[in-house]
Hints:
This is Oxidoreductase. The protein has twelve helices and 15 strands. It has helices at residues 44-50, 93-97, 99-102, 144-166, 184-195, 207-217, 226-229, 249-257, 281-286, 300-313, 316-321, 337-342, and strands at residues 2-7, 18-23, 33-42, 67-75, 108-112, 127-130, 136-137, 176-178, 200-204, 221-224, 240-245, 259-267, 289-292, 323-327, 349-353. The strands form three sheets. Strands 3, 4, 5, 6, 7, 14 and 15 form a seven-stranded mixed β-sheet that branches. A six-stranded parallel β-sheet has the order 10-9-8-11-12-13, sandwiched between helices. Strands 1-2 form a two-stranded antiparallel sheet.
Amino acid sequence: MFRSIVVTEDTPAEPGTAELRTVDDDFLQPGAVTIAVEYSSVNYKDGLALAGSRGVVRSFPLIPGIDLVGTVVSVDEGGAGDADDAGDASGSGGATSQASARFAPGDHVILNGDGIGEKFFGGFSERARVRPDALVKLPAGLTAKRAAAIGTAGFTAMIGVLALEKLGIQPSSGEILVTGAAGGVGSVAIALLAGRGYSVTASTGRADTEGDYLRSLGATTLLNRSELADPGKPLQKQRWAGAIDSVGSTTLANIVAQTNYGGAVVSCGLAQGADLPLTVMPFILRGVTLTGANSVEAPIALREEAWAALAAELDPALLDSMTNTIGLTDVLGPAGAGSRILAGSVRGRTVVDVRA
Ligand SMILES: NC(=O)c1ccc[n+]([C@@H]2O[C@H](COP(=O)([O-])OP(=O)(O)OC[C@H]3O[C@@H](n4cnc5c(N)ncnc54)[C@H](OP(=O)(O)O)[C@@H]3O)[C@@H](O)[C@H]2O)c1
């Protein structure tokens, strides 16, 4: 028996709930790799899942939690079941058949996205059974707790940084803008970029309370996010060599309109909105590139590249300074971490010690 958070669906008879339950292995979905989960984390998407959002929860009941870090208990090719993408966590036949070649009991592993916490059971549980396709071994030198502190937010920040560099952006290119700066993706992006020698401007709505924090991560300039929030001209004064944006909507449109000739912008999120009221002008007159980062479906080679870089580059003391640790039940309820991240009041990263 083990503890899991379970989200149920609204019905005409009663509202859906997110509650702590004690369940057993029979409750878990099919999957080749069974994991004793140690840590998960709270991301914006987890807040939505805990609130029962159908935009995130694809199948009820669901164990939310898009991140997990833990230890492999067993690898069971026979436990993979039929590879059916509609509702089966087993994974493709090819990758599943390699599970025992890639993993063994006792391995420390990380899983970010790949459908967990959305269509497959996720990390807000002491035990998980998952497909092996996107599992990454915990890199040497990184603790399980710090890997959870990085989580999907930090992984996304790193694939954003790698995307900028693959598009030719370097520290000598000029200023880099990070939006949603005091949030999870933003905080890690600032630390990674500053560590690589970039000059970083942090756009935030909380400069009064989080300004010192953002400077401690490596931001050299703070920008009030209201300066980017309203509709602007299609082409504006060139300010940014690159940007990592968690906000979307008119903020992203203004960023693209302010990006230097040859610059690049990575769209990671939609904290302001999913719309994007742009014109083609920045692309046809300045050769700006707008690209995206998708942590959920990132291929295994990118996952391994990003995690190796995160382990090597992210200053543990800086990571600890942006991390708050809570127990499994602390994610629940109106004052819980799930509600607080939706309200925009969480700073940095929240680790969930699922055993606490
Ligand atoms: N593409 C992917 O694979 C991927 C992965 C992870 C996350 N995401 C998305 O990226 C976004 C950030 O995720 P996160 O985990 O970092 O969330 P988070 O910790 O809640 O951070 C979001 C930050 O955005 C800013 N913000 C909130 N509401 C805003 C608004 N209305 N207008 C402008 N800024 C606003 C706030 O920063 P300040 O207080 O500093 O202004 C907030 O801290 C979310 O939309 C999430 O769904 C995408």
